[in-house]
Write a structure and sequence with these properties.
The chain is of the alpha+beta class. Helix content is 27%, strand content 41%. α1 runs antiparallel to α3. The two termini are 21 Å apart. Bound molecules: 2-acetamido-2-deoxy-beta-D-glucopyranose (NAG) (4 copies).
């Protein structure tokens, strides 16, 4: 009788263990991370004191979009870029759309964009010393390609402050990382907590 109960318990335990391992591996292989976005170049000829092309009110920029997933492709929806006069986003100075595209795993895309700007708003944003701090926000949605299957859309909303000097280019020589202000990682932490709970139950069951 007791032998029987012990066998049943062992069987039950190994069932739970297998189920747990399976879900762990499922989670590991289905887990996706959002592309990394940064600004590589940012140039406003109209603010370039050294240029004789200051009538050109078009903002030129370059984005770097990086798919860090080892084995998943990324389908980007239209990438909407909005540039504001100040970090507090009081007025829009220009917008730009980079058309939808597909990116293979571990690939990096460099996308050039232009945005006609509202010169009145731009000139109000410039400090007396000729520099300015703009806000750049990027909004898009991505679907991940896992083997032959596409996930649902994941929304991406990231941004950064961009300081511009008297030559109309970004002050920071390095790429400016665009990051989200909200807590994008909630589901990731939920998963981690779930897995920890699972092993906890396993040990004490
Ligand atoms: C800029 O525009 C002004 C007025 O429209 C014009 O007088 C000037 O020649 C232009 N400058 C250049 C460099 O095109
Ligand atoms: C945003 O910041 C700028 C500069 O600091 C300021 O002049 C402007 O009034 C602010 N706008 C809002 C809506 O807070
Ligand atoms: C220009 O002025 C602004 C505001 O007064 C300041 O934040 C910024 O650091 C100055 N930039 C330079 C290059 O002096
Ligand atoms: C991007 O902008 C277009 C048109 O302005 C809009 O239809 C689309 O929903 C925007 N995309 C996102 C992700 O907000």
């Amino acid at each position: 009788m007791s032998e029987n109960a012990g066998g049943c318990c062992r069987c039950c335990c190994s069932f739970i263990f297998t189920l747990g391992l399976t879900s762990l591996f499922m989670w590991l292989s289905l887990r996706t991370s959002n592309p990394k976005c940064s600004i590589q170049a940012f140039y406003l000829p109209a603010l370039d004191k050294s240029s004789n092309n200051r009538n050109n009110t078009t903002l030129q920029f370059q984005l770097k979009l990086e798919n860090t997933n080892k084995d998943k492709g990324v389908y980007y929806d239209d990438v909407n870029v909005t540039v504001y006069d100040f970090p507090n986003r009081s007025h829009i100075i220009g917008t730009s759309v980079i058309g939808r595209f597909y990116q293979g795993h571990k690939k990096t895309a460099h996308k050039n964009g232009t945005a006609p700007t509202d010169q009145k708003v731009v000139s109000r944003a410039v400090f007396a010393n000729g520099s300015a701090v703009f806000r750049v926000d990027l909004v898009t949605a991505v679907r991940f390609k896992i083997i032959a299957w596409k996930t649902k859309r994941h929304k991406i909303a990231v941004g950064a402050d961009v300081e511009v000097n008297v030559n109309g280019t970004k002050v920071n020589k390095k790429n400016i990382k665009l990051s989200s202000s909200g807590s994008n990682n909630v589901s990731y932490y939920c998963c981690c907590v779930g897995i920890l709970l699972y092993f906890f139950v396993l040990i004490f069951a």
